UniProtKB/TrEMBL annotation:
Organism taxonomic ancestry: Bacteria, Pseudomonadati, Pseudomonadota, Betaproteobacteria, Burkholderiales
EC supergroup of this enzyme: lyase
Family matches, as PANTHER family: ADDUCIN, PROTEIN HU-LI TAI SHAO
Matching NCBIfam families: PRK07044.1 (NF005451)
Protein name from the UniProt record: Methylthioribulose-1-phosphate dehydratase
One Pfam family recorded for the sequence: Aldolase_II
Gene: mtnB_2
Amino acid sequence: MHEPTEARVRDELAALYRLVAHFRMTDLIDTHISARVPGTKHHFLINRYGVLFHEMRPQDLVKIDLDGNPVDPGDADSQLVNAAGFTIHSAVHAARHDLACVVHTHTADGIAVACQRDGLLPITQHALRFYNRLGYHDYQGIALDLEERESLVASLGRHKAMILRNHGLLAAGSSVAEAFVNIYYLERACQAQVKAQSAGAPLVFPSEAVCERTASQFERPTAPIYTQRVWTAARRLLEPDLETIE
């Protein structure tokens, strides 16, 4: 399979920003999504700070290296990125070359679950997608200290999703499509948990064996086909915006 071009990744990443906006997972100009530039381990694309997610275009994505330096020429404003976003995303891209895209959100339900001692509970099928496959990172303040990158990576481990305690959610994937699927279902799992808890009734927990079996089912060999179908279908939600995204 041919590696995608930078132009293709820019197009997909801009679409992902708009889908995150479509599903109401934004927080004004804060939070961020990044994608590795094809053919390099040291460059990635991330949003220009100040652009709303529903406005995102391929040309609004800034290419930077793992030291935070802009790769392409431009004035300071056009190259401005969120400092905490750089810390989080550079940490993952430097350590996890198997991951091509990283999404970080501050949704109300994601933060609510991130504030709970037991984190994401294995009470829904969506949550079981992440059973024993979810990292947890303790809050250390706004992620402006580059030294936090080491502990961020340690907390993520070999997983593709993580709860940042008292903060929000992080999901990643080997492609933009997989990162979208992971953040979508992680968010939905958090939404369902908060609603189930608010009902006040006792919660039903599947057995550990059922939880593990279900998680394994999500890793079946056909999973990449499903992921691509979801991504293709989700992009159709943006069709009225296609002229403005190009």
